C-alpha cells in the first residue's frame, strides 16, 4: 500500500498540535506574570535599596571583621595567622593598612614573605612583636636551617638570623585597606560609629518599611473591598 501525503499529514498531526496546546497552556500564565511585572513598583524598591546600601556595606564589613576575629582566635588550632600591617617596610608588595593571612608550611624558600616572632639578637628574649618580611637568603648554622629577612622598602636586612621555629607561617593572602577598618573598629568610638549606629539605623529603616508595606496593603484591600 502506497503511503500518501495525506496519510503523512494525518499521522504527523501530533507534531503540529503539541506546540499549539503548549501555547494555550502557557498563554494565561504568561499574561498573569507580565501583568504583575507591569504593576510592580520598581521605583519604591530601588529607593529602598539605595537608602540601605551604606548600612548594608557596614554590615558586610562587620561580617568580615567577625571572620577575621574568629580566625585570630582559632590561630592555635589551625595555625592560620591574621595580621594587620601598620608600617611601610614591605611597600609596595604590602601597603600599610593591609591585612595578611599566613599559614605554616614545611618548606620556606628565598623570596617567600613570612611572618615570624622577633627575638632580640643581643639578649635572645622575645620582643612580643610579629614581623612580616621577605626571605632574601637561607643557610645552615649548627645543622639548623636559618633565614635572613628584609623588608622590601628597607635598606638593611633584619638583625639576627631567623630560625624555623620562629616562623609563624608564609603569607598567602593580602587584603589591602581592610586593616584600617580593623584598627579603628577595635576602639570604642570606632565600633560605635561604624557598627552600632549604622546597625540601629538599618533596623529602624527596615521597621519603617514594614510599617509602610502593611499600611499600603490595608489601603489596597479597603479599595478592592469598595
From TrEMBL:
Record GO biological process: signal peptide processing
Origin superkingdom: Bacteria
CDD domains: S26_SPase_I (cd06530)
Cited SUPFAM superfamilies: LexA/Signal peptidase (SSF51306)
EC number: 3.4.21.89
Chain ranges passing through the membrane: 53-71, 191-210
The keyword Ribosomal protein is annotated on this UniProt entry: no
GO cellular component annotations of the record: membrane
Keywords: Membrane, Transmembrane, Transmembrane helix
Keyword Membrane annotated: yes
Major localisation: membrane
GO molecular function, one term: serine-type endopeptidase activity
InterPro entries membership: LexA/Signal_pep-like_sf, Peptidase_S26, Peptidase_S26B
Cellular location(s): Membrane
Full protein name: Signal peptidase I
Amino acid at each position: 500500500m502506497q503511503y500518501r501525503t495525506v496519510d503523512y499529514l494525518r499521522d504527523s498531526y501530533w507534531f503540529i498540535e503539541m506546540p499549539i496546546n503548549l501555547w494555550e497552556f502557557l498563554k494565561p500564565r504568561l499574561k498573569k506574570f507580565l501583568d504583575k511585572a507591569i504593576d510592580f513598583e520598581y521605583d519604591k524598591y530601588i529607593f529602598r535599596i539605595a537608602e540601605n546600601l551604606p548600612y548594608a556595606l557596614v554590615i558586610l564589613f562587620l561580617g568580615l571583621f567577625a571572620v577575621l576575629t574568629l580566625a585570630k582566635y582559632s590561630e592555635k588550632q589551625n595555625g592560620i595567622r591574621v595580621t594587620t600591617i601598620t608600617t611601610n617596610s614591605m611597600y609596595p608588595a604590602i601597603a600599610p593598612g593591609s591585612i595578611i593571612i599566613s599559614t605554616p608550611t614545611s618548606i620556606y624558600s628565598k623570596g617567600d614573605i613570612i611572618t615570624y616572632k622577633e627575638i632580640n639578637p643581643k639578649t635572645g628574649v622575645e620582643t612580643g612583636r610579629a614581623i612580616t618580611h621577605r626571605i632574601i637568603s637561607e643557610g645552615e648554622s649548627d645543622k639548623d636551617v636559618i633565614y635572613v629577612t628584609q623588608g622590601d622598602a628597607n635598606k638593611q636586612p633584619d638583625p639576627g638570623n631567623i630560625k624555623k621555629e620562629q616562623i609563624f607561617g608564609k603569607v598567602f593572602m593580602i587584603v589591602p585597606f581592610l586593616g584600617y577598618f580593623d584598627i579603628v573598629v577595635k576602639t570604642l568610638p570606632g565600633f560605635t560609629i561604624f557598627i552600632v549606629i549604622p546597625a540601629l539605623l538599618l533596623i529602624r529603616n527596615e521597621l519603617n518599611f514594614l510599617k509602610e508595606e502593611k499600611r499600603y496593603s490595608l489601603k489596597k484591600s479597603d479599595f478592592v473591598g469598595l
